[in-house]
Amino acid sequence: MRTEQDQILWFQFGALLSKAKMPTLENNSIRIKDPQVLFKDGSISEKDLKHYKKLVDSGEQEQAIDEYIEKYVTPYIEEYQTTIQNYISQAESGQLKRQDSHNLEKSVILLTLAFVSLNTKNFESFVSESLSEKIFIDNMIKSASLKKMILDQTLSQFNQLTQNTMLETQSNVLNHIRTLQREMIVENQKISSLDIIGSKLSEEIELFKKSLRKKYPDIYMAMEEGKILKSSIMADGTSRNFKLKNYTEMSVRTTLLNVDRTAVEVDAKVSNDEVVEFYLRDHRTVKDAREICMYLLGDKVNGKSLLALTEEAASTYGIMTIAEARGQGAFGSYCRHSIKRVSNQFMKSLKGEYA
User: Fold this and answer.
1) Residues 244, 77 contacting (CB under 8 angstroms)
2) Is 275 helix (H, G, I), strand (E, B) or coil?
3) pLDDT category, 17, cuts 50, 70, 90?
4) Are residues 187 and 229 in the same domain?
5) Tell me, what's the pLDDT at 29?
6) Residue 290, SS3 per DSSP
7) Same structural domain for residues 280 and 237?
8) DSSP letter string, 220-252
9) How far is CA 139 from CA 151, 274, 281, in A?
10) Residue 349 located in a structural domain
């Protein structure tokens, strides 16, 4: 018969055999992080908001965005990602008590809500207090209702890229934890029926762990590499796993760089414009230029690179719509290009040529 010591060996086998880097079960209890402690210093300061505004006002918008992300996005998404990896590791180390499993899942939810709240508040503060005023001045936007429309659309884009992704990530992580615990319970039942001890028990546990790794590669990528974000199903029927840190930094940067593009697009549509000019905004060098951006810059109409605001205008002038260009990769992360309204004189000349 299996002794009590053998039973303890099973429940704590993660501490002996798991290749996870962090110890997980200690005295049959799990370790939970408090989101209020984890993110307590994360709110953006008035001093930094003024500093970022000064950079934006002096024409260093990209620098302000880079500094904001480095200080107020990266450290906290890294904390979140590392904590989630640790939680999955705890679930992978052995069967947890029912209450411990519940507390682990509850902590995942609370951590996600806390990060989403912090990230959203900081984003709103940065846009409204540091970034938007210069963009409105540069584009001669004075209408309060138009400004609100632009800010609302910017926040909507941010929510779509970040908040929804965080909630999907939360769902994936909870599924990982529940899957692992279900496997642990089944394996415990199997071991009870086998009635094995010592080296035989160790061999069974090792084989079980190897089978888990083969059966659930996504879970181990999440636990060991931090790839806790899973993409939606692509056209070829596959999906990809990403580090949440990389995606979050990219989505925040993309949304912030899109504020002035959104401002121009909304203003132009309200004014019933047909086209806008596509131009190089940031002259800093990049390693690989986007093919779509190079194409748009080279495809000139009356000396300007143009994008259409409607399908009708695109057909009339033989150019892409903004939506088509964006769909092919323009205005993505680190894109140096933007759009601006064209003059009435240019538009009059263009219409005359294509009449």
Assistant:
1) yes
2) strand
3) very low
4) yes
5) 59
6) coil
7) no
8) HHHHHH---EEPPP-TTS---EE-HHHHHHHHH
9) 14, 17, 14
10) yes
For residues 118 and 185, state if they share a domain: yes
Give dist(CA 296, CA 327) in Å, integer. 13
Q: Please tell me whether residue 26 adopts helix, strand or coil conformation.
A: strand
C-alpha closest to that of 122 among 255, 228, 243: 255
Asked, for residue 302, whether it belongs to a domain, the answer is: yes
Question: Looking at the 3D structure of the chain, how many domains does it have?
Answer: 2
Q: Do 285 and 177 reside in the same domain of the chain? A: no
Spatial separation of the C-alpha atoms in residues 243 and 81, rounded to whole Å: 8
Are residues 288 and 236 part of one domain? Answer: no
Alpha carbon distance 50, 57 (integer Å):
10
| Residue 248 contacts residue 77 (beta carbons within 8 Å) | yes
In 238-349, at which residue ranges do the beta strands (DSSP E only) sit?
241-242, 275-280, 300-301, 304-308, 337-341
276 and 238 share one domain: no
> What angle in degrees, to the nearest 10, is found between the helix axes of 244-270 and 164-194?
150
Say yes or no: 103 and 164 in one domain: yes
268 token code pair = 């132009």
Contact 56, 134 (CB under 8 A): yes
Is residue 292 in some structural domain? yes
User: Range of 184's domain?
Assistant: 4-245
- Residue 33's SS3 state is coil
- Write out the H or E segment, with its range, that includes residue 350: helix 344-353
Domain annotation covers residue 258: no
Residues 186 and 314 in one domain: no
pLDDT confidence tier of residue 353, bands split at 50, 70 and 90: confident
- Contacts of residues 215-220 at CB distance under 8 Å and 24 or more positions apart, as own/partner, are 216/176, 216/179, 216/180, 218/176, 219/88, 219/92, 219/176, 219/179, 219/180
Length of the chain: 355
The encoded tokens of residue 154 equal 């910017």
Q: What is the pLDDT of residues 119-128, one digit of tens each?
A: 999 999 999 9
Comparing C-alpha atoms, which of 344, 304, 288, 299 is closest to residue 325? 299
Rounded to the nearest integer, the mean pLDDT of the chain is: 84
